[in-house]
TrEMBL record:
It comes from the Bacteria. Residues 5-225 form the NAD-dependent epimerase/dehydratase domain. PANTHER family: NAD(P)-BINDING DOMAIN-CONTAINING PROTEIN-RELATED (PTHR48079:SF6), PROTEIN YEEZ (PTHR48079). This is NAD-dependent epimerase/dehydratase. GO terms for cellular component: cytoplasm. Coiled coil: none annotated. It comes from Bacillus sonorensis L12.
Length: 315
């Protein structure tokens, strides 16, 4: 791979993958709808000649075809909001796969773990896909669309991430906690403070995703992107307080609190059904990655949170 296009390049995972590709001296096309955000991304990377941008809409396959024609790999990092998932996710999948198929390109789909539902066995790529939620079932349909045999020329793979954090994170469960604490404000933590959960540091995730994309035999498969182990919300808050010196109150939000918030916020309303992940963590196995790719990069929570918070406190 010498040249890649990142769809949804100004989002959380998109920015991390752009940075990782540039660190490897790869040419990158940043694709998105907002020229303002794309120009800001260019500025953050000091307008390097390796990075260009193309305006387009992931729901319009023709704009992807035009932008991606010279790329070796398409990284699909665009997403839809929770309350629009039922309406828009499969349309997004159809568009990106149609473009990849027309061009005969490799395409890396970044997705999450809703397809699995509750953990019933080892969290490897063969874990049963028996979701008990509406969003989980939509994600199963999405996977089936990506790997549909009618795409005779596209070469897709799916990478699955747990919840994540990092300086580019925007919509993760942990983000409001870290932004609030960095600003020394009363903040919230979504879920039970005592439940150990898995998070992946976005720069680590980007390294693994690019390594997987570089292997020709990775395509046609699901791949786990595991984090640095389990950690409770209580321990995260302690680390953040030690780093920032801030000690304002952090309020845990349980399912009832989220349900009440959902009366006024359509996104929070949709969070209720996947609150099980904040109460009973799903742990991803990295055994396949270690066997076929190599050592898993796993920045410690102490270091990852330090880097994230230093960035947030400068904003």
């Amino acid at each position: 791979m010498e040249k890649a296009i990142v769809l949804g390049a100004t989002g959380g995972t998109g920015q991390a993958i752009v940075s990782e590709l540039l660190s490897r001296n790869k040419q990158v096309i940043a694709f998105g709808r907002s020229e303002k955000k794309l120009k800001q991304l260019m500025k953050e990377h000091h307008s390097t000649a390796l990075l260009t941008y193309k305006l387009g809409d992931v729901f319009d396959y023709k704009t992807i075809v035009e932008a991606a024609k010279d790329a070796d790999v398409i990284f699909q990092c665009a997403n839809v909001q929770y309350h629009e998932m039922a309406e828009k996710l499969l349309l997004l999948g159809e568009s990106v796969m149609k473009a990849a198929n027309i061009l005969g390109k490799k395409i890396v789909i970044v997705d999450g773990i809703y397809v699995y539902g509750r953990q019933v066995a080892k969290g490897d790529e063969n874990h049963p896909k028996q979701p008990h939620t509406k969003k989980g079932r939509i994600r199963v349909d999405f996977e089936n669309l990506i790997f549909n045999k009618r795409w005779t020329y596209a070469k897709p793979l799916i990478v699955r991430l747990p919840d994540y954090y990092g300086k580019t994170s925007q919509n993760s469960y942990l983000h409001p906690t870290l932004t609030g604490m960095a600003a020394n404000k009363v903040s919230v933590f979504i879920g039970n403070l005592k439940t150990p959960r898995e998070y992946v540091y976005l720069p680590d995730a980007a390294k693994m995703i690019v390594e997987i994309a570089n292997k020709d035999d990775s395509y046609g498969e699901n791949w786990n992107i595991p984090g640095a182990g389990l950690i409770s919300g209580k321990d995260i808050i302690k680390i953040v307080r030690d780093i920032t010196g801030h000690s304002k109150l952090v309020i845990p939000l349980n399912k009832t609190a989220i349900r009440i918030s959902g009366l006024f916020d359509p996104i929070m309303k949709e969070v209720v059904e996947i609150m099980y992940l904040t109460e009973e963590a799903f742990v991803l196995s990295g055994e396949k990655y270690e066997k076929r790719i190599g050592k898993i990069p796993a920045t410690s929570y102490q270091q990852g949170l330090k880097e994230t918070l230093h960035f947030l406190m400068k904003k």
